[in-house]
Specification:
Length: 184
């Protein structure tokens, strides 16, 4: 029983941490938020240029320094260019995708999947609305319906993936049980 409580607490702390990160970014005034977005885009561009340097350097056997964050910015650049999303929309989708996973984990022990999904959607939707209302109080920020839609894409995809994985795991376990009982 103690192990169950510790895991559940860990999931709850993870959910609150994601909510805290969302609140942190939402609490930045409009100018700071724009600068952060510009910096991320600049880092993505720098990472692209670093790849081009590496390709040229390989031709002359010189290896440039390459960091983990370069890989993150490269992947972000690929995602942004393929999806044609702006950095802000991507940030909404990604952060609420994380929140959807965190909420699903907190609700993991709810037996009825329909109830788990309804509670998950409700928690994420309420937090998303809270986040947008909160932004109305921040200089240079306002309530955006588009942000609510991007948030919904994030948490709905996360909840859908989690639901699918649970169903897949359940079928796998049931299949193994059937094999054991038929062999006995």
């Amino acid at each position: 029983m103690k192990h169950f409580i510790n895991i559940r607490l860990l999931y709850f702390v993870f959910m609150l941490s994601v909510m805290g990160v969302i609140f942190y970014f939402s609490h930045q005034d409009g100018e700071v938020s724009k600068e952060v977005s510009k910096q991320v885009v600049s880092n993505v561009e720098d990472a692209k240029h670093e790849i081009k340097k590496e390709e040229k350097a390989e031709a002359v056997e010189v290896k440039p320094e390459f960091h983990l964050m370069d890989i993150v910015y490269i992947l972000l650049g690929i995602i942004l260019s393929v999806t044609k999303l702006g950095i802000r929309n991507f940030a909404h989708i990604f952060l609420y995708w994380l929140l959807g996973i965190a909420v699903f984990l907190v609700l993991k022990d709810e037996k009825r999947i329909s109830r788990k999904l309804c509670w998950g959607i409700l928690v994420c939707l309420i937090y998303s609305i809270f986040d947008e209302v909160h932004q109305m109080l921040i200089p240079g920020r306002d309530f955006q319906i588009q942000d609510l839609l991007m948030d919904a894409v994030g948490y709905m995809v996360a909840l859908g993936i989690c639901h699918g994985l649970v169903k897949w795991k359940t079928r796998l376990v049931e299949g193994k049980r059937r094999i054991k009982t038929s062999n006995s």
